[in-house]
Amino acid sequence: MCSFVHTSWLIGKVCGKVLFMLIVYRLINNRFTYIYIMRLALSIILYLSLFNNASAQADSLIAFAKKHLGTKYCYANCTPQKGFDCSGFVYYVFGHFNIKVPRASMDYEKQGKIIHPDSARPGDIIVFTGTNVKVRKPGHVGIVLSHPGEEMKFIHSSSGKKANGIIITSYSSSPYYKKRFIKVVRIDAVIP
Q1: Are residues 8 and 71 in the same domain?
Q2: For every one of its 192 residues, what pLDDT tens digit does the chain have, with 9 covering 90 and above?
Q3: Which residues have a Cβ under 8 Å from the Cβ of 158 and sit 6 or more positions away?
């Protein structure tokens, strides 16, 4: 369920209760109470529409990410027409659901809640060093596809010579990514 549907459901639920209260108070014919309830209802609707945090179901996020499999790699880019770099791809996918994540992989150093790799779930972000393993700073990111207990797989934009562009990689089958691993982070707006 995307954030718009979730927000609409929540607003509908609140409006239904407020409408019921309005009808009851209107029947009582107390004009002051009726105006007060009407103002309260409008304030609640405005608050929910302005301050609702965006969210996305993990399966919707993953399905959207997989639609871009095979899209070419393009340094410093975040559009399907031109291609994606790694953080541009993550930024684009999460941005589609109005979820804010850093645009640059180096900004994942202090981003999100750190999760143990065995507890990683679809929609979490896996963070690696850049190509120089000795520099233990974020330089590559991807989106976790697998559930806890499964072999960890992630989708990302690779600049590699053999596999270039949006691909799915198995973490455990890749010594290259194992030695570059930094952490897995969870973005709270992704609903399991």
Answers
A1: no
A2: 344 444 444 555 555 666 666 666 666 666 666 666 667 666 665 555 444 456 689 999 999 999 999 999 999 999 999 999 999 999 999 999 999 999 999 999 988 899 999 999 999 999 999 999 999 999 999 999 999 999 999 999 999 888 899 999 999 999 999 999 999 999 999 988
A3: 73, 86, 164, 165, 166, 167, 169
Q: Active site residue: 15, 68, 96, 140, which one?
A: 140
If asked whether residues 74 and 39 sit together in one domain, one would say no
Residues 72, 25, single domain; the answer is no
Considering the candidates 6, 68, 116, 156, report the single residue annotated as catalytic: 156
Say if residue 86 is in the same domain as residue 22: no
- Could you tell me if residue 166 is left (phi over 0), alpha (psi between -120 and 50 degrees) or otherwise beta? beta
The residue written with tokens 């990111």 in the block is 141
68 an active-site residue? no
Bridge partner list, 113: 186
Question: Would you call 156 a catalytic residue per the annotation?
Answer: yes
Are 125 and 37 members of one domain?
no
Q: Which domain holds residue 41?
A: 3-51
- pTM of the model as a whole: 0.73
Q: Does residue 140 have an active-site annotation?
A: yes
Q: What CATH code is carried by the domain that includes residue 177?
A: 3.90.1720.10
